Amino acid sequence: MKPSFYDLNYSDLEAVISQNGLNPSVASVLFNWHYKKKETAPCLEKISKQSSNFFQQNFDFSLPEIDTVYESEKDRTVKFLFRLKDSHKVETVLIPFNNKYSICLSSQVGCAMNCSFCFTGEQGLKRNLTTSEIIGQFLQAWRWLANHRPGEQRILNIVFMGQGEPLHNFDAVKKACEIFLSQHGTSIGIQKITVSTAGYIPGLKRWRQEIPGVNLALSLHSPVTEKRNELIPLNKKYPLDEVLAYIDEIPLQKKQFITYEYILVKDFNDTPDDAKKLGTMLAGKSAYINLIPINPFPGSRYTCPDWETIENFKAVLDTFKIPTLIRGAKGDDVLAACGQLNSNDKIWLSNTG
Ligand SMILES: C[S@@+](CC[C@H](N)C(=O)[O-])C[C@H]1O[C@@H](n2cnc3c(N)ncnc32)[C@H](O)[C@@H]1O
Ligand code: SF4
């Protein structure tokens, strides 16, 4: 099987070109056409016949195929179910804001972390995605927008908050970030990419050295060990205080924050005392808190607190002067909100009736 063109970052591509005696300018032409103009692959007519033959013979230009598209009637969120070459499936979400979009990318088919509140966790880990499968989600979603919502193909933010634990698939996610950031390609600003983690320390260790400028979000969910253990079993192996110690060492740019995500679960982690413990833990850090009222999914065991409880929780955090946002669910009518993704065939079939 040929390697995928979309697995190459810019320096990989330059190396391939130089090793095969091709014109060095081919690298920027190919990146420009595939990633900046996002033309349909392979765009090989833009380069010499010799280079074109070489790439056609040696690289695969196919992308994950769109299997099903779910459009939210509530808020125009779009969820894609992609079919991969080996028939595995994975989901991706376009979240609209002011005629622009954030894209929520998946990094794995399923997830190994088994968090008790997450539909993806129930799926178990099937496999890591390749860089090309990550990049492919972006390119296919962009092309879908161009065809179905012309004039709206502005994807301004990329968040790794879909299926999977991105730091558990560090190499592929890192390379995808490098392609997104490349000035020859999509040229997305470094602060427009956010990687969310449940606290996978081996990945955090590499973060500091390898991609410190990309934004990081930590799924914190409870400062209380027993509660966090119940929500995120990974906490037993990599406890929160160790995770926070690693995060504290990440060098931040001016005005850069670490986002701490906190799902609110009724009668579990939603009291003023929980909020006080959270505020005490994060006070003095360059922190931004996202409060996420828990999203339900078929068979989920937790429920969401009422609005008054949520506002009271935020009011306690406000006394610590930590910027805090209550993040409303988008796309929950098509199971596209945080933690509702699951590309298991049986579940997908029962969702679509
Ligand atoms: C699906 S995860 C993917 C990224 C990474 N694995 C993580 O846990 O941070 C993205 C975000 O969704 C949150 N999430 C998972 N299940 C949820 C649910 N049922 N309701 C609300 N948020 C949920 C996670 O805690 C995390 O903050
Ligand atoms: S919340 Fe994140 S780490 Fe936990 S199971 Fe879901 S995708 Fe995996």
Automatic annotation (TrEMBL):
| InterPro entries per UniProt | Aldolase_TIM (IPR013785), Methyltransferase_A (IPR040072), RNA_MTrfase_RlmN (IPR027492), rRNA_lsu_MTrfase_RlmN/Cfr (IPR004383), rSAM (IPR007197), rSAM_sf (IPR058240)
Q: Looking at its record, which EC class is this enzyme?
A: transferase
* EC number of this enzyme: 2.1.1.192
Quote the subcellular location field of this record.
Cytoplasm
- Cofactor(s) for this protein? [4Fe-4S] cluster
Xref: CDD domains:
Radical_SAM
Name the chain's protein: 23S rRNA (Adenine(2503)-C(2))-methyltransferase RlmN
Q: Name one GO molecular function term.
A: methyltransferase activity
Which family would the database say this protein is a member of?
Belongs to the radical SAM superfamily. RlmN family.
User: What NCBIfam families does the database record attribute to this sequence?
Assistant: rRNA_mod_RlmN (TIGR00048)
- Output the GO biological process annotations, alphabetical, semicolon-separated: methylation
Q: Which PANTHER family match?
A: 23S RRNA METHYLTRANSFERASE (PTHR30544), RADICAL SAM CORE DOMAIN-CONTAINING PROTEIN (PTHR30544:SF5)
Write down the superkingdom of origin.
Answer: Bacteria
Task: Provide the Radical SAM core domain boundaries.
Answer: 97-332
Q: Which UniProt keywords apply?
A: 4Fe-4S, Cytoplasm, Disulfide bond, Iron, Iron-sulfur, Metal-binding, Methyltransferase, rRNA processing, S-adenosyl-L-methionine, Transferase
Q: What is its main location?
A: cytoplasm
Q: Which residues form a coiled coil?
A: none
